[in-house]
Amino acid sequence: MISSAKVLSFAALAAVLLNGVPAAAQNGRIRGSVRDGSGGPLAGVTIRAQGAAAARRATTTTDGSYSIANLSPGAYAVSASLPGLRTQARQEVRVEADAEAIVDFVMQAVELEAVTVTAMLREQRLADVPFSIAAPTEQALRIRGADNIEAVAASVAGFSVQNLGPGQSQPAIRGASSGQIARDQPGVKEDVGAYLDDAVVSLSLFTPDLDLFDVGRVEVLRGPQGTLFGAGSLAGTVRYISNQPEPGVSSTFGEVGVNSIDGGDPGSTAKLGFNAPLGDQAAFRIVGYSTRTGGYIDATQPTLRVDDDVNGVDRTGLRAALRLGSERVSITPRLVYQQVKAEGWNRIDAFNILANPYTTTRPPVTLGERGQFTQTREPFTDKFLLADVNLQITLGSMKLTSVTSYTHRDILVVRDAAALTASVTGGTIALPEAIYELDSPLDDATLSKVWTQEVRLSGAADRLRWVVGGFYSSNTRDYGQDLSVIGFDTAAAPILGAPDGFTQGLRAPKDHLFWSDLHNELKQGALFGEATLSVTPKLDVTGGLRYYNFTEDRGLIFDGIFTNDNTGTALVTDTGSTKANGVVPRFIASYKVSDAVTLNAQASRGFRLGGINDPLNTAICSPADQATFGGRGAWKDQTAWNYEAGVKSQVFGGRGNINLSAFLMDLRNIQLNVTAGSCSSRLVFNAPKARSQGLELEINAAPNDNVDFVLSAAFNNSEVRSSVFSVDTLGDSSVVSGVQSGNRLPSVPEIQMNGALTYGWDAGQGSRVSVTGSFQHIGSRLTAIDDQGRGVCLVGVTTCPFGTVDMTKFEVDEGGATIGGPLSQDVFRFNPELPAYTLFNLRVGLRRASWEVAVFLNNVTDERAFLALDRERGTRARVGFLTNQPRTMGVSLRFDY
Prior knowledge:
The chain is mainly beta. The protein is about 5% helix and about 50% strand. It has a 22-stranded antiparallel barrel. Strands 11-16-17-14-15 form a five-stranded mixed β-sheet, with no helix packed on it. Strands 1, 4, 7 and 8 form a four-stranded mixed β-sheet that branches. A hairpin with a 5-residue loop joins strand 41 (about 725) and strand 42. The protein starts with a helix and ends with a strand.
């Protein structure tokens, strides 16, 4: 484990050593002054001069002046930036030997800067990208209280992230969602690609929640991006763009803060970074961070003792990059490490077979507003390591880029499976309380190793800009489960008439009732190219194509009495392979009506690789569920055609913009994740047709020097357009798990809105105060497609919507027992549709030349939102909801020297 003290000590030592490296003398300078819109001087503005060989930085003084000396002759790009103001830039500023160039700036207030993005693998102004994209900067996200991927999604129209527990999330863009992914589905692929700069970091379910410290912006590319970004980008792509080492610049920056959660534990933040020059053309940048998020969930124990605030989270990390190069060649090796440790789950239990208010022969239990029932702790650990090398070579008018990356993930999820185990041992098998109450920790371990290599060549000539390249990846993912119920064998053997050691398998140790080992190997290769032609000064057309070829091999071993009818004499084994290839094209037209208005249209195809289902846990499956869910081996590739039209416009004389886009996605063989009822298994079904359509609106404006605001909204209508049926032993057909034409696709709200309003004013020489209010509204959602299927009801009950749980089914229909029965009521009901919610945040900040202090209040109204439905053994064992952080107040200090 890398402690926060070690991270920061290492960073400080590196900075001390590297700051001692002298820069070579230069012989020119740039000077000037910076003023606000009313003509007053601005202090504390960061001035950067970037040349071909080096970069330099300075800060304006109290009279607004600055000077950057010792610059080698040549052309420089000079920029002026200050949080809360629009960044200004001058290109091709010429510096001559023994001379000076004068560059003055006038800065206007605005929250969102004129951002440069690389969504098409080349630098462009955000407004010039010919499709729907959002790129909130680090400052904009901080103002809105966004510090993780879930909060980023809440701040971007058309982007949603379903919280599935600590370190586990399911992103979706434009409604193309398969719903909840379970940990025991390692073969499921992503439908939203995730990148740290140019390095792939996607991993289904475990999208890394990287800390946003020293991340310049987060690019959200809406719609299929398969042409340039490949598999996993069927619905879109999310790119964390980090700040790179800056030659010629020596800086120290960081953040410290504390916060308090209503009814929970306190939290803290400590982050520190350095940029150190190594001569004229090299630099080293290192950042370290440690954050503590307090717990706020209370866990009732079997003794009815309550453990408070069990779900605290620690996140510690380090990013280090070294840039070496010349005018033609640069190479940047980098190392990224992050460890997340959660002490428990952000889950509220609505029903638990072992703790509910309906039992009469067990103590009835009513849990609190943010309460759960556990017998054992549920820690989560995620160790993330990324090593990559970015090489760029300028070849005349062309640039060759090579990106090599290696990602290593080591994840351990521990679940208290007491409710799941009791539903089998006490419900299905009807063993006594002393046995079904035994502790049952379930360990889920994931080990992922991914190598990727991309080489691309880009260039521009006259009216043509183009890029061609190749991509290769090798992904190995090992996954295993181990359910340990110590004491079960000795206690249950006499009752079941079994010999001592009957739970001992060939792989499963004694008392380990379920054991699995899955090994997936995925190899993928691709060739791609895209070109943009300026047909006229106003009309650009873009065409792109990607060819992909992939193969996947899967090996599987199951053992233990919950899944293996031949425990001790044989193993459940299964091997399988799948492969596919194809092409994904993209066509874009962009027409510049005027300097302020641009029209865009796009047709693009995306793809998501298929995979292989695991066999059912037949030992605990009901016959009906075996008939419904059995015999479903592999699932097919999913494809999508996206049709999009949009307009990007500048308003308020260039001090604002309005972007509007409309889209229609035609989804084929959509992959939907379903729960196989009593089997406690998860499968993937292909529904032949689905459709998603909607609108996205974004407004950013700074009508004067004091006020700026941002508003974005998305409307999405996504639904299944075909049904999947099963046929029972009598020949009757029925819809499987809610996969029915007209049903909503899961995890995506129909309505999503967010906005922020900032009022800022100068408070004395060199000081600026700002007050920001922001909100995030998320409409109602469903967690999984089978939330629209059938509930758990007795045989013969014809009206049984999902959300109905007949707690006597084990006894009445299956010859088992009702735990805690007789019950005060037989049926438990809940609403699987997650209700809409709205969060409000407030922030007051004071900015000086090199520091900023802020006081914030997040979730002002203390909204308790339901983020996802959590279930065990269908809904027979437990029903819960993942929830958000309560009202939180804090203070933070940021500095940059």
